[in-house]
Specification:
The complex is a heterodimer of chains A (559) and B (103). Chain A has 559 residues and is mainly α. Chain A has one domain: Cytochrome C Oxidase, Chain A. Chain A contains 17 helices and no strands. Chain B is an all-alpha fold. Chain B folds into 2 domains: 63 residues; 31 residues. In chain B, helix 1 runs antiparallel to helix 2. The longest helix of chain B has 27 residues. The chains are: A mainly alpha (559), B mainly alpha (103). Chains A and B meet through helix 9 and helix 11 of A and helix 3 of B. Bound molecules: protoporphyrin IX containing FE and copper (II) ion (CU).
Chain lengths: 559, 103
């Protein structure tokens, strides 16, 4: 840690503070909690578990691809491996990850509220999430599904004899938790802001969460209906997607991507919010062009709904529609680019410190840049014909989803860990792990761009021997990446018991969350804060010390 | 939230209108109208009915501006989905397959 706040141990020892963590120790106090912070922790446990399962599938995939022949698993099993991997990672990990864990924990604190607008709905959303995800896991153990995470008909509706409906039902259920979280956040941001917390004083993480919530509320119902239609088609053959009954399989793709393209922004917008927070803190400068960054989140949310046809250039979609979708896809890149430029401008002449959250944030900027730019390659009608359904696409979306969203998730974990747990982790190990993740990630996925460009199709378990070197590089990279992910799991858990006690504001950061103690009391603040400053207004060192670490950050009396 | 009391009469009138429109749909279904009229009539009737339900039974007509904006946004998003999907279906046949290559 580069900064430290001076402790006065005697004061703390006198009488242990009530925090959200020690406010109740029974299992019931956790499972029936209405505290948004505890619900955030419950989500953390949930998504970590499904991330682990998704990771096991990824490991098996990379093992199979070490050699050109199919020697580890059969073709059928391989189909199940990449399907389960995709479903676990997208629906059960990445979509809920940042909103449900850090959004839940931080959003009310950041706006100076005691809780979200509907605490019961919030708890319900976690139960719905667990029910859906466990239901899909049951389907997985019963035999799994092999359609790809995209469930395209006619295979999914007429031919697949795996657990399509059961898995789809699991995703259907989880969708409702996503809608509830989004709804809760929208109402919370509108109605629960502390006095003085105007819209333009909101941290950019909150703006990003707001934009994400809009997508969750407006998009997820369409996914639910689409999966329901697949189930109806399989069971009673309604004929929506079957040409023999007057349907059209491409209609499925329209409906699926109407949700699933915006869904990629559900995954990346909160990540961008996290990066804005971290970049400001560790550059010690307000974010350059605050309003542009805030509104670019909304622009991405809206424009994100207009581009889904770029996934269908090689289907029987009309080329005229393709031209429109291609054009709008290029337009979406503009608000994304605004963010990248503004982060860079924020760092320019900033007083940068390279603490571990900052390493992740900087990794995000670089890797998201590559991911986004290759997205533009793919949005070009002519080029996409060549690289569609190759490893080029696989590399593209892993750059944005792993290099982007996952790195931001890890950055958020390190940035807010002291706040959430009240403990500091070993910074040296954390920096080392960030570096390992960065190297491992690039070694895993950069070769996949080349593989795809050379013509290696995605979702195949065998390949021509010429591709072996690149595949081996990728598998080696994946092992390094795995080490980089296991390390934080170890030292973070270690820090829970052995880590030094965290001060209220270990980073000398600016958000309201740093003006309450670590970990926060159950009601977040001793008194409702009155906000008289803008987001990212840095305080002098003396002021941070006055506010002090020992649980009495008197926010309301700050001038 | 202002509790607006809707007279029973209104509910009966809306219910009556819905029943008449249902009868109309059933009646029209007995004839094969020319061109795309079959679908046009059925969908028009359906949209009118849905609008009645949303405005009166779901009280949107008497609700706050915020509620109305949210309902409008939901419908607007549905329109986005339909229009852009239609941009595919409507233009699909414009590139007609080449029937015969003549020299
Ligand atoms: C700059 C903005 C972006 C553009 C222009 C873009 C463009 C594209 C295009 C055209 C494809 C289809 C390629 C094909 O199948 O032939 C694609 C695939 C994909 N993109 Fe992006 N993308 C962008 C950002 C993102 C982001 C931010 C994410 C996620 C966080 C993402 C996730 C995906 C995924 C998951 C797929 C593959 C879906 C599948 O077929 O399984 N993209 N992208
Ligand atoms: Cu897309």
């Amino acid at each position: 840690m580069s900064t430290a706040v001076i402790h006065t141990p005697a004061e703390g020892a006198a009488e242990p503070r009530t925090t959200y963590l020690n406010a109740g120790h029974t299992l019931k106090s956790w499972l029936l909690t209405l505290d948004h912070k505890r619900i955030g922790i419950l989500y953390l446990l949930g998504v970590s578990f499904f991330f682990l399962i998704g990771g096991i599938y990824a490991t098996l995939i990379r093992l199979e691809l070490l050699t050109p022949q199919g020697d580890l698993v059969t073709a059928q099993t391989y189909n199940k491996l990449f399907t389960q991997h995709g479903i676990m990672m997208t629906f059960f990990f990445l979509i809920p990850s940042i909103p449900a864990v850090f959004g839940n924990f931080l959003l009310p604190i950041m706006i100076g509220a005691k809780d979200v607008a509907f605490p019961r709905l919030n708890l319900l959303s976690w139960y719905i999430y667990m029910t859906g995800a466990l239901f899909a896991s049951y389907a997985m153990f019963a035999g799994g599904v092999d359609t790809g995470w995209t469930f395209y008909p006619p295979y999914s509706t007429n031919y697949a004899n795996t657990y399509v409906i059961a898995t789809g039902l699991g995703i259907f259920i989880v969708g409702f938790s996503s809608i509830l979280t989004g709804l809760n956040f929208i109402v919370t941001i509108h109605t629960m802001r502390a006095p003085g917390m105007t819209w333009y004083r909101l941290p950019l993480f909150v703006w990003a969460q707001y934009a994400t919530s809009l997508i969750q509320v407006l998009g997820t119902p369409v996914l639910a209906i689409t999966l329901l239609l697949v189930a109806l088609e399989r069971t009673v053959g309604v004929g929506i997607f079957d040409p023999r009954l007057g349907g059209d399989p491409v209609l499925f793709q329209h409906l699926f991507w109407f949700y699933s393209h915006p869904a990629v922004y559900i995954m990346v917008l909160p990540a961008m919010g996290v990066v804005s927070e971290i970049i400001a803190t560790f550059s010690r400068k307000p974010i350059f062009g605050y309003k542009f960054v805030a509104f670019s989140s909304l622009a991405i949310a809206v424009f994100g709904f207009l581009v889904w046809g770029h996934h269908m250039f090689t289907s029987s979609q009309s080329v005229y529609a393709g031209m429109i979708f291609s054009l709008i896809s290029y337009a979406v890149a503009i608000p994304s680019a605004i963010k990248v430029f503004n982060w860079t401008a924020t760092m320019y002449r900033g007083s940068i410190s390279y603490d571990s959250p900052m390493l992740y944030a900087m990794g995000f900027i670089g890797l998201f840049l590559i991911g986004g730019l290759t997205g533009l390659f793919l949005a070009a009608l002519g080029l996409d014909v060549h690289v569609h359904d190759t490893y080029f696409v696989v590399a593209h979306f892993h750059y944005v989803m792993v290099g982007g969203s996952l790195l931001a998730y890890l950055g958020a974990m390190h940035y807010w860990w002291p706040k959430m747990t009240g403990r500091l982790y070993p910074e040296g190990w954390a920096r080392f792990a960030a570096l390992v993740v960065f190297v491992g990630f690039n070694l895993t996925f950069f070769p996949q761009f080349i593989l795809g460009y050379l013509g290696m199709p995605r979702r195949y378990y065998t390949y021509v021997p010429e591709f072996q070197l690149l595949h081996v590089l990728s598998s080696v990279g994946a092992s390094i990446l795995a080490v980089g992910l296991i390390l934080p799991a170890i030292y973070l858990l270690w820090s829970l018991k052995r880590g030094p006690i965290a001060p209220a504001d270990p980073w000398m950061a600016t958000g309201l969350e740093w003006r309450t103690s670590s970990p926060p009391p159950p009601e977040n603040f001793e008194r409702t804060p009155v906000v008289t400053w803008n987001a990212y207004e840095f305080r002098s060192k003396e002021e941070t010390e006055v506010i002090g670490p020992m649980g009495k950050p008197d926010v309301s009396e700050r001038k | 939230m202002s509790e607006h009391i809707v007279p029973k009469k209104t509910y009966y009138a809306v219910f009556g209108a819905l029943m008449v429109l249902t009868a109309l749909t059933v009646f029209v279904a007995r004839f094969d109208l020319p061109g795309i009229l079959n679908i046009t009539v059925a969908l028009t009737v359906a949209v009118i009915k849905a609008t009645l339900v949303v405005l009166y039974f779901m009280h949107v007509r008497y609700s706050s501006r915020l509620t109305q904006v949210i309902v409008a946004a939901g419908i607007f998003w549905l329109v986005i989905m339909l229009v852009l999907t239609a941009s595919d279906y409507v233009t699909r046949n414009l590139l007609a397959p080449v029937a015969r290559i003549s020299m």
